[in-house]
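tool_call: predict_structure(chain=1)
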Amino acid sequence: MAKFMDIHRGMKDITAAQLKEAHEADLAIENEENVHFERAWADPASGDVFCLSEAPSAEAVQRIHTRTGHTADEIHPVPLSI
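tool_result:
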């Protein structure tokens, strides 16, 4: 499976509790699309949230995010990491 980094914009002033709640919502249904969300990060000042996942496709990632109410603005494949 491939890795993806997605970006959500416009989540200014997001709290740690809100980030955790959004991430847990994704985790609750991720198996339905064979996706695994590994980690999430946020910058409350800019409103940018980043998620790293492993999935069969960017579309599968987006379907999970859309169903949980936080559609990604960008999804990038991450073909190389160290």
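agent: The chain has a mean pLDDT of 97. Proceeding to next step.
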